[in-house]
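Rotation project, supervised by the postdoc (A.L.). Task for the rotation student: set up a whole-complex structure prediction and record inputs and outputs verbatim in this book. Inputs entered:
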Amino acid sequence: MEFGFYMPTRVKIGKNCVLKNSDDFKIGTKALIVTGKSSAVNGALDDVLNVLNKNNTEFVIFDKVMSNPTVECVYEGAEVAVEEEVDFVIAIGGGSPMDAAKAVALLAVSDLDRIQLFGSDIGHRALPMIHIPTTAGTGSEVTPYSILTNHEKQTKKSIASDCLFPQYAFLDAKYMQSISHDVMVNTAIDALSHSVEGMLSVKANIMSDIVAAEAIRLISSQFKNLKEGIADKEILLYAAMLGGVVISQTKTTAVHAMGYPLTYFKNIDHGRANGLLLGEFMKYTEKYEPLRVKKILSVMGIENTAEFKNIFIELLGKRDNFSVDELEMYSYISEDTGGVKNSIHRPNVDEILEIYTKSLID
Amino acid sequence: MEFGFYMPTRVKIGKNCVLKNSDDFKIGTKALIVTGKSSAVNGALDDVLNVLNKNNTEFVIFDKVMSNPTVECVYEGAEVAVEEEVDFVIAIGGGSPMDAAKAVALLAVSDLDRIQLFGSDIGHRALPMIHIPTTAGTGSEVTPYSILTNHEKQTKKSIASDCLFPQYAFLDAKYMQSISHDVMVNTAIDALSHSVEGMLSVKANIMSDIVAAEAIRLISSQFKNLKEGIADKEILLYAAMLGGVVISQTKTTAVHAMGYPLTYFKNIDHGRANGLLLGEFMKYTEKYEPLRVKKILSVMGIENTAEFKNIFIELLGKRDNFSVDELEMYSYISEDTGGVKNSIHRPNVDEILEIYTKSLID
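Outputs recorded:
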């Protein structure tokens, strides 16, 4: 037994947890609220503004975060943070605003250029953060990662530092009321993928496995409801947070690494990209690590990897169109990534292409 | 669903994890090592001194911590910390040195008198700490609690603040090599009690329950080995840490509250005290919360609370002698404690006496 565990974010879960914990928002005197144009729906922004007004805390809103946020976007946000002299950041939204907020909180106090930002040492300082997820997928509210679009590498890349753990995460399913069917499905698959990949990571350990198994169990319990549009949003929000706890320890694997090019080049939703690849990656891994795969299937109450893959086929509907040339390019882009290297059995470039092909063309 | 989760300690587990992570010991420039006369056995102190010497970090050793540390002891330790101008604390030992170290780290930077120390607001500042458990019971290395002997109240009382979470916990089972049979049994029962009580706490939640169930499962898997003196120490050390994670969220219940007088007045080991009471408390709770109790029994793979109680009878051997008068006094002392109030079904003073009597006399 050899592993480490660290997850310093204070998580508060429950209806009206933002309003009920207004004192927690006193971690600074002026807030930068980082969100997307349509992220702060269902009252999340209203609740935060209520709390800030109650606390007499100043704030500025930066609502320019797009899906799959760019480096340009986070530098722009950091500039606002510096100009406005904010001393903490509140992120409201799905993975995109939360990941952007982390990079903004970092760049507001650290002088890093684009190369350094994706380098191995981004330092240990960032503005303190409060994260309020409005989707049940990313788990970013409890991870030390920020995933940004990296045009140099033609994919999405993560930056990581313990200073990117938010100080607080508030999880209230009421902010998910009007989420579309597709977003519910894609984000649930992303959350499931975090936990499944966590169990297929070289860093999987006895502790991450407990959390991953629980998240997988909970999300699996909602597959039928997801299809019917009646999923329990609170369970999924909680399970997605657990998935974040898992990857904080284990990181993600080839599935995420291979999914990023699908998003970068074809604008395929992140969770959907993972879902398209997860079945074949499980089949691939089964050849080398049958017991690990069996453990995941058993938690889900299913028999085999064919049945596993079928869940995603049913949830995701018609596949997107890809050419062999495209998949070859993605294979070369993915081959040397941290995610591929982090897989319990590491696929080489030919095997990556095979997984892509079986997932997307065959 | 409504709960919070917070556990900021960095946990590192594995053989030689102290030596392998010497950089983590650079959290200060001069350390106070808090330990007991015989706590730093099996090389724990040697490993720490190796690391401090390698890092050129100064240190002072305070090795006067006794079992069930007193308030006098922690004030004395704090005086040494101030005089020697240390800026971090390293605790080596079981629950007693770890709990004492927390109070020392607090009192070294906070001017609190004895009344304030047991009051509701001990502030938010303490010296940073590294904890190295050498028993598998307390879980103190991952909790915000310090339990001290309180002569005014004639029992043990806990002080609690998030500033008492250690920064680091290093878990290496090699430090447990020469633990006596009784200590192994008593500490394992303490760890089990934390997780069982966590599931019987009013603060039990979906997340604490996962961790508690895993700890209970692991400790139960070692009952037979414990009796035979061949328990897997690494599994127990890990499970005890999980028990600490549980009570960080849920606190303990009537079992701990009722156990403290047994220790205070009769010097009965803390884990043993819990073990003597746990069976009857389960039986009591079963009457009001049968499903909760059933869940615990099912994790342990046993049928009923009689079988549950029997485990502890077998492990603990002959009971200690108590008079009815003694038990009446303990009942009055326990009645109004936080632990009793924290129980999922709160026993009144007559019920407390009944639990004591059935546990210790009948």
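Student's summary: The two ends of chain B are 41 Å apart (CA to CA).
Supervisor addendum: DSSP finds 16 helices and eight strands in chain B.
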